[in-house]
Amino acid sequence: MKHVQVEVRDTGPGIQVPMQSRLFTPFDRLDLDHRHHVSGIGIGLALSRSLVELMGGEMGFDTEPGRGSTFWFTLLAAP
């Protein structure tokens, strides 16, 4: 079976280890710095992972604090 993998990379601050387990939790915001106004309710990654899994795929991330993150998902390729 062939798979398709999509990746999105950033060069931001990365995700600190204590917060990584909360990344796909609905309504959980990782940004605890209240000096910056960021809109949203923290459901985007949880919803994305649910949709990918409903299509038989997998979603995850790789991160290195201070160097950025790569978010990815894989799906079965159409025949």
Question: In brief, what are we looking at here?
Answer:
The protein is of the alpha+beta class.
What does this structure look like?
It is a single chain. By secondary structure, the chain is an alpha+beta fold. It is built from two helices and three strands, in the order E-H-H-E-E. The longest helix has 11 residues, at 44-54. The protein starts with a strand and ends with a strand. The model has no long low-confidence stretch (mean pLDDT 83).
What keywords describe this structure?
2 helices; alpha+beta; 79 residues; 3 strands; 3-stranded antiparallel beta sheet
Radius of gyration, taken over Cα atoms and rounded to an integer in Å: 14 Å
Number of strands: 3
Helix and strand content put the structural class at: alpha+beta
The tally of helices reads 2
Oligomerization category of the chains in this entry:
single chain
- What is the end-to-end distance? 9 Å
| Fraction in helix | 10-25%
Order of helices and strands: EHHEE
Major sheet attributes: 3 strands, antiparallel
Runs in which pLDDT lies below 50 for 5 or more consecutive residues are none
The average pLDDT is 83
Spatial arrangement of strands, main beta sheet: 1-3-2
- What is the general shape? flat
Task: Tell me the β content.
Answer: 25-35%
